[in-house]
Amino acid sequence: MPGEVRARIVSPEDFLSAGLVEAGRLDEIRRVAERYSVAVTEDMAALIDPGEPTDPIAAQFVPSGAELMTSAEEFADPIGDERWSPVPGIVHRYPDRVLLKPTLVCPVYCRFCFRREVVGKTPAMLEPAALERAYDYIRERPEIWEVIVTGGDPFVLAPRRLAAIVQTLDAIPHLSVIRFHTRVPIVDPRRVGPALAAALQAEKAVWVAVHANHPRELTPAAKAAVTRLVRAGVPVVSQTVLLRGVNDDEATLEALFRGLVAMRVKPYYLHHADLARGTAHFRTGIAAGQRLVQGLRGRVSGLCQPTYVLDIPGGYGKVPIGRCAIHADDGYGGWAVEDGNGDRHAYPPDPDKAKMRE
Ligand code: SF4
């Protein structure tokens, strides 16, 4: 339920009294809050250094006047959720999987969110009748293999509501996987108690994808929350958004991905930031993202490497956009493959032998 979110800082005045913005910026923050939802949890607020103007945690959660500027390439619905929503609460973009969005409430409102036009707005919850229609949509389509429960953040729901979702999906024979997308284990980790872990128990595979962007978010409490999920038999992966001024350098990404793997979380996706309105100040260039990802190749093991992806605007799907390491070499009909330092090698190694096999 929306009232169960334990974010203490939920208004411009709260940000002011918590010392996260100066009085001179209150009007600016109020104008942002009229357009987009604002909130940060006490756990995340405690990580912010108010004296550091470029604090990477503050950049993610403290509203900024830069959000009031919409650039020409930005959209209200950058990845086309509406276009692919056949019934309320469902997004069906790929044949074998759907998104199910039971709530639009989050524990924090990230300043770069691609769903920022809808999260935290009313209606916050999918009405029971609409939820039932969404379940029927899934039941009637045997091609659906996986349901991704997202929002908003589904882990703000009371454990009994989460358990009801899991049990309903678990009872649909053609489903194999139930996946939750959440920021709660990182930003409000005490919410991940035994009752929540118990709510995820099912016959089918239940996976959790957590959202983390900076190594400072990996607090002892966050590690304990993830450990509770892992010990309950839930595999955990992560999603990160590449954000200018937050994590757009190799050392920060390396620390983040090493930290995640060390707490038993497999880095899954590194998202290029979407073209959401008022977020231009967060976006890096794609070439810069490719350079970062290539740099990471030489620094950390494969276990620590997420796939760098872009959601094609309009809802045409997610595609990997890291530089390809292999190129057709027309000189001899083989391949040229790049190592972690950017040096090229012939594949197969001896071009003459390759020619003899043709
Ligand atoms: S928690 Fe996720 S859905 Fe909610 S505001 Fe942040 S990015 Fe958006």
Rg, rounded, reads 22 Å
Q: What is the string of helix and strand elements?
A: HHHHEEHEHEHHEHEHEHEEEEEH
Biggest sheet descriptor: 9 strands, mixed
CATH uppermost class of the largest domain: Alpha Beta
Q: How much helicity do the residues have?
A: 25-40%
Strand element count: 12
Classified in CATH, the superfamily of the largest domain is: Aldolase class I
Q: Which oligomeric state applies?
A: single chain
Could you say which small molecules are bound to this protein? iron/sulfur cluster
**CATH architectural name of the largest domain:** Alpha-Beta Barrel
Structural class: alpha/beta
Number of domains: 2
Tally of helical segments: 12
Beta-strand content? 15-25%
Q: Which ranges are low-confidence, i.e. pLDDT below 50, for 5 or more consecutive residues?
A: 1-5
